[in-house]
Request: fold
Amino acid sequence: MENVERLLMEHPFFQGLDPRYLKEIAGCAREQTFKAGEFVFREGEMSSQFWLIRHGKVSLEIFVPGRGPITFSTLGAGDVMGWSWTVAPFTKQYDGRALELIRTLTFDAMCIRTKCDEEPKLGYELYKRFSQVIGKRLQATRMQLLDFYGHHD
Amino acid sequence: MDTTISMDASATTLDPMRPLPYRVRSCSRETHDTRTLVLEPPRGQSLAFAPGQFNMLYAFGVGEAPISISGDPLERKALVHTVRAVGATSRAICGAKPGQVLGVRGPFGSPWPVEQITGQDVLIVAGGIGLAPLRPAIYHLLAHRSEYGRIVLMYGARTPQDLLYLKELERWRSRFDLQVEVTVDSASGKDWLGNVGVVTTLIPKANVDIHHAAALVVGPEIMMRFTLIELEKLGIPRERMYVSMERNMKCAIGHCGHCQYGPHFICKDGPVFSYARIQALFKTREV
Reply:
């Protein structure tokens, strides 16, 4: 547990979080590794987990009929992966696949939700952090839609 | 080998309005719409230029276009330009065959401040064909490697097929003294194992000392706008962020006014500006 707590403290996503809360949520996390090519999650699955990436790179993919899997984003060390556990219908919308060996801290979403219900300040803090992640992903998607590199000659 | 670069931004042609005939030595494919041309100067013609400067390339009978110089500033035997075919003139230039003659005026414009930023970490952010005007600066930084701190190149393109200078990127990535991060907007899951996402998503991970860092940025204006926002968040001061601007340059010597940008002429006062100098204009619509 102490090891998980230390790893949580080192991860940018939890930077500045009250150590009391870190201790609280450490019990919902475990260390995990995925081999290159392995799926961390698949489209349509229940969002019962989220991951803090400590090492390696993950591609987020959508399967397009006739074209195969299309990668629309990659995440790496220091990133948090999976926010659909925060909002209904708690379902994965795409695939997450390890591009290389990845090490994660994997969280049980149900456990975290229970902790948040018991301690609303922790819940507020976590939702603020996840909102930032969702906002950044939305902004990045808008930029991709703008065809960022398209009109320079 | 002489490793100094003349920072004299004045045109090397005696009459800056008279194109000189340069012969195309080679025209190689970079992407589906982009070619790199190697041009041989007329006998006795100086090829000195500073990183960031541009030439006016003239496809006879079609038209003239401002094109950044993309070659090595230490290379004195040939001139290198990377051109994307977007209109009649650039299409004609891209279609030039070896042996064909193109008119060249220049070099023109302000250079990257490679001498002022010695001692700094350098973060280079390029989008799309924006890597072309940055390549001479990269050559310069690498030729004078010990004079700079960390050098980080972040480069974004639409797809893996739209990346310029692939072999060179691989060579640069293999160096221990240069961090290269490449990203694309989308890729099929099988043929690309690199980053996917816009180039701005890489910036927070730049390994530079922000108290001693300068940034060189080129790409479409929309990309530069959001890149500058991210660089500000990182903590790099505006005085040490440099951008290369683009407008409809015609005379290239500040006479015709086609490239006016507020009180500046891009061709003469730019194309390279510190962000501090143009920040108000950068946020003004329809300038």
